Amino acid sequence: MSRAPFESIVEAHGARVWRVCRALLAHADAEDAWSETFLAALEAYPTLDPARIEGWLVTVAHRRAVDVLRRSSRLVAGEPADRPAPERARDLDLARALAALPQRQREAVVLHHLGGLPFLDVAAQLGTSSDAVRRASSDGVRRLRELLGGADA
Amino acid sequence: MPEHELPLAVPDAPLDALRARLAADAAGAGLLDVAVRTLDTRVGALLLAATERGLVSVTFDGEHPDATLERLARELSPRILRAPARLDAAARALEALVDGRARAFDGPLDLALARGFSREVVERLREIPYGQTRSYAQVAAAAGSPRAVRAVGTACRRNPLPIAIPCHRVVRSDGSLGQYAGGEAAKRLLLAVEAG
Q: B116-195, which class in CATH?
């Protein structure tokens, strides 16, 4: 069986992987994580299961983003601070709030809500049950709202 | 819970910049087996593909390249990315030919997609001088198979590198143009450009 041109994988999942990276990282770091994720996929492409590539990409993107967060405690401090557009402020708050979530809650929120993976797929990626993911996601969203001061704009 | 209730707004992906970055990273890591880009020309929207060895494919389906991309994935490698940078020089060289500013393709060619008898025919096509034409029968004779006129026609139609390798210079013995992957109008235009 022949594989689809990798270009079509980028086309289909580029925006999704970006949401995962950019939710956790400043723009430049998100670019690094996005490119590293697709580069790793390109390298592994001959052995990747086409049916699971979406979950693979989202999981790797999340892992890369968390690695960057750990490496540099900068979080989103790489952003220039002198452009306080409202969108930007909210966006920074989101990254900080996500980084402040317990690991399981963050994984569940990022993989499900930003990466668009069904609970079942998230559970498979994290090696846990679908119910556990659903609970972690729901707890994570509640905690996010608290952290963001109940912002509903 | 619907996503719009969540405070999860993320700026849109700068996909063009991300793709360019990925293509450069992949090339640096030796993982970009086939680079592709489109090119608008007077003979239509082309899809160009290149390996590390050179330009490997030119097709006239730049606006709907999916079938060609699938074929390149099958016959060369699925590690295919849009990577305009690697194809800049080839694009300029092709434009120069279409516009009559060059008499031969200037740059490396990879003939990996021309195999067997087709390869033999393609090599003969490269020997037809600029501004001249040959009949299918003449090319068959030059390829050492004078009776294989029909096979020469097929090989010309499947020339993986039209424009760069001048299959448009092969016409019917009766003077009519014959088939062309880019359509008869494109063939006529390329021959008119060469006639000056």
A: mainly alpha
Q: Is the ipTM of this complex over 0.90?
A: no
Question: Please, are residues A20 and B13 in contact by the beta-carbon 8 Å criterion?
Answer: no
| Nearest Cα residue in chain B from A25 | B10
DSSP string, B17-53: HHHHHHHHHHHHTT---EEEEEEEETTEEEEEEE-SS
Cα A70 versus chain centre, distance: 15
**pLDDT 10s digits, B55-86:** 999 999 999 999 999 999 999 999 999 998 89
Q: In A, which residues are within 8 Å of B5 by CB distance?
A: 152
Angstrom distance (rounded) from CA A111 to CA A118: 9
Region of residue B30 (phi > 0: left; psi between -120 and 50: alpha; otherwise: beta): left
**Which of B8, B12, B47, B74 should one mutate to test binding to chain A, selecting the residue with the greatest count of A CBs within 10 A?**
B8
CATH topology of domain B15-98: Double Stranded RNA Binding Domain (3.30.160)
Q: Is-contact B26 B85, C-beta < 8 A? A: no
Whole-number pLDDT of residue A1: 57
Q: How far is B178 from chain A (nearest CA, A)?
A: 33
CB B68, CB B61: distance < 8 Å: yes
Cα separation, B76 vs B58, in Å, equals 14
> How far apart are the C-alpha atoms of B122 and B142, rounded to whole Å?
11
| pLDDT top residue among A67 and B135 | B135
> What is the spatial distance between Cα A34 and Cα B21, in angstroms, rounded to a whole number?
10
Q: What is the dihedral of CA B80, B86, B92, B94, to 10 degrees?
A: -40
**Rounded Cα distance, B68 and B58, in Å:** 10
pTM of this prediction?
Answer: 0.84
Residue limits of CATH 3.30.160 in chain B: 15-98
Main-chain phi, psi angles of B168, to 5 degrees: -70, -15
**Angstrom distance (rounded) from CA B163 to CA B151:** 20
Q: Measure in Å the smallest separation between the Cα of B9 and chain A Cα atoms.
A: 7
Closest Cβ–Cβ partner in A43, A91, A109 for B9:
A91
Tokens of A150: 């109940």
